[in-house]
Amino acid sequence: MGMKLTEAAGTQELTEEDVEAKEPEEYRVYLVNDDFTTIEFVISILMTVFHKSLPEATKLTLEVHRKGRGMAGLYSYDIAITKVQQVHAMARQRGFPLRCTMEKA
Fold first, then answer.
1. CA dist 102 to 52, 54, 73, 85, Å?
2. Which whole-number Å values give the CA distances from 11 to 4, 8, 16, 71, in the listed order?
3. Distance CA 39, CA 27 (A)
4. Model's pTM, two decimal places?
5. What are residue 13's phi and psi, to 5 degrees?
6. What pLDDT does 21 receive?
7. What pLDDT shows up at residue 10?
8. Residue 35 in contact with residue 44, Cβ under 8 Å?
9. Dihedral over alpha carbons 80, 85, 88, 90 (to 10 degrees)
10. CATH numbers and ranges of domains, the chain
11. Which long-range contacts (CB under 8 A, 24 or more apart) does 36-44 make?
């Protein structure tokens, strides 16, 4: 927040300048298709990590399967990187090679 010093009638007063707050940059998080991760596991990831409903998760899973990848969500950097790490950790724990990527929106 910017501050400026003003002088009025021999005294000094510290006032705040109006500063425009910038929105944080957003990142798209994608799930990437592979030939080994089960559809059920991808659906569970979408419901658990990305808080999708069963119909949304099913639709997105089919998109990932058909198109090679599907956008799971749009997040600020910190949230996006956390979600990517969660997906990778859960997939490795279950022995799946599921990949999750992010790119600037």
1. 18, 23, 10, 11
2. 14, 5, 16, 57
3. 25
4. 0.80
5. -125, 135
6. 82
7. 63
8. no
9. -110
10. 21-104 (3.30.1390.10)
11. 36/96, 36/97, 37/91, 37/96, 37/97, 37/98, 38/96, 39/65, 41/91, 41/94, 41/96, 41/98, 42/98
Residue 100 · residue 87 · CB < 8 Å: yes
Residue with tokens 């997906």: 87
Which two tokens mark 50? 């990305």
Average pLDDT along the chain, 105 residues, taken 10 residues at a time: 54 63 93 97 98 98 97 98 98 98 97
Name residue, tokens 């010093």: 5
Q: Which amino acid is at 61?
A: T
> At 86, which amino acid appears?
Q
Angstrom distance (rounded) from CA 96 to CA 21: 41
30-60 in b/e burial notation, b at 16+ Cβ within 10 A?
bbebeeebeeebbbebbeebbebeeeebbeb
CA distance 28 to 83: 11
User: Tell me, what's the pLDDT at 1?
Assistant: 47
